[in-house]
Amino acid sequence: MKTILIIEDEQTISRVLAVYLKHEGYEVVQVFDGKEGLDLFTQHEPDLILLDVMLPEMDGWDILKEIRKVSSCPVIMLTALGDIDYRLKGLNQGADDYISKPFIGEEVVARINAVLRRSAHVLETENMKQFGSLKINMDSHVVTVSGEKIVLTPKDLSLLIFLAERPNRTFTRDVLIESVWGLDYVGSDRAVDLAVKRIRQSLAEWPASQGEIRTLRGLGYQFSVYQK
Q1: Which of 59, 92, 121 is the last residue of a domain?
Q2: CA 29/CA 21 separation, integer angstroms
Q3: Pairing relation of β-strands 48-52 and 27-31?
Q4: Do 145 and 134 contact (CB within 8 A), yes or no?
Q5: What pLDDT is recorded for position 125?
Q6: First-last CA distance in the chain
Q7: Closest Cα partner for 27 from 9, 48, 13, 8?
Q8: Between residues 200 and 227, which one has the greater pLDDT?
Q9: 126: left (phi over 0), alpha (psi -120 to 50) or beta
């Protein structure tokens, strides 16, 4: 049984979400302030987190930053702030999805199922790929550069694996959305740009002489590997 951690200070909303998720067969852990939420994340190691932005003690942005330092656990942000800048901020900081309040319980369940399906896709590969100092273990899902472990979100890891399995080939945003995010994805194709940006930042120590994720204007993205 998969565990969902709900970090939401509005207890009515939290209770409603818990009812829907338990009915779907998930185990649910609820917490109502930010600091305790971060503590429970460490204790329970959930399969996915529903994270409110506006929280007492510690806000959702800071919690997300702390989680991403140590884990690629999927995170879906919940907030009444529907402005596009807030959605992009959440995605750019490593959130896997973003749901604005008010929302329908069935939609939240569907988005959780979709994120977990995309995360599970990463588990299907079983080998090691190496590009100079960059190593990608498809079995343990560990990415290292010069021996240093790189923490990526499940979605970013899935995108990196997809591109690394097909070096020097170019893919449009639409192809990447369909192949990595899945046909049930309902967000913007900007998600690809943000994921690539995060991956590049994470791989900053990977020498450009060995390879890079290139942007080919008007064509798409390519995992370019340089061979002497």
Answers
A1: 121
A2: 11
A3: unpaired
A4: yes
A5: 44
A6: 49
A7: 48
A8: 200
A9: beta
What are the φ/ψ torsions at residue 142 (nearest 5 degrees)? -100, 130
Helix (H) or strand (E) holding 221: strand 220-225
Q: Average model confidence (pLDDT) for the chain?
A: 86
The CATH number assigned to the domain holding 149 equals: 1.10.10.10
Please state the rounded mean pLDDT for residues 180-197: 86
Domain holding 22: CATH number?
A: 3.40.50.2300
User: pTM of the prediction?
Assistant: 0.59
Range of the domain at 209: 130-225
Res 228 pLDDT > 50? no
Cα–Cα–Cα angle for 92, 95, 98, nearest 5°? 100
- Report the pLDDT averaged over residues 59-70: 86
